[in-house]
Amino acid sequence: MCVFAPSLSAEAIPVKNASLMPLWSPQAQFAGYYVALDKGIYARHGINLKILRAGPGCSPVEALQKGSADFVIIWLTTALQHRSADTPLVNLAQIIQRSSMMLISKKTAGIKTIADMDGKKVGLWEGDVSIPPRTLFARQHIKIREIRQSHTVNLFLRGGIDVTSAMWFNEYHTILNSGIDPEELNIIFLRDQGMNFIEDGLYTMEKTLDKDPALAAAFVDASLEGWRYAFDHPDEALDIVIKYMREAHLPANRMHQKWMLERMQDLMTPVHPKGALGQLVEQDYDAVGRTMQKSGLIQSYPDYKAFVWRDDAGKK
Predict the structure, then answer these.
(1) pLDDT tens, 116-125?
(2) Which residues pair with 103 in a beta bridge?
């Protein structure tokens, strides 16, 4: 298991051990956590944090269930699906405030709307991350030719599929870097289709929260502080992210990571007048829950107050 943890100085106060499993390998999508780790923010909040290996073959929810991770990053749709199946996980903070998921086609394909995708080859990722587009297609009674999509956009670039799934902060920029101009693409944000299935959130199990609520609170506060520092010091944040990427033997393109960090700032900015960094707004939660229930993806979903531990996250 790959672990990233800074050494503690002799003067450091005793701290509690904790672990975090992101959704993927080190990249600027998770800059706040690596910055908080590298800058000693977690340690200052009394936490000796380990960021666990993530990506292919690693399931954050399974890690929570097995107790091999104290905290994880998963999408709200994933959390609701597992909560509906009686996995007692709790939302500690909602990192992304508006969905960045997109469906992208080349203009030459003549696909301008979701209806135009009927019968077309559409790339979908495997697992829970395909819930939002599947729900959208079901709601509009669209039957696509589903093609499994890997973590690259090569199949789309080579013409193997008509439509590709993409995240604004990641795959969209990769497509542009391949030499395709924005004007050559038709882009549909799922949030513009009434599908604001907000993504990254911080979660833990009820038993972990019951055992040490102070640890959970410190973890959330330190994580959000790491994000604030990253946005205030973007060049330093990129240096830190790229350092961890190289330690994990991953290719690190600074321009792409810069795009990702900037888009994360856009996506994390509160969209509601009384919202705050890290807050899961009740109307957003209910909208996702209702849509998933109506689409038959979940039988039921809990009351907001039973699902969200701190609805004041980030208000400090």
Answers:
(1) 999 999 999 9
(2) 165, 188
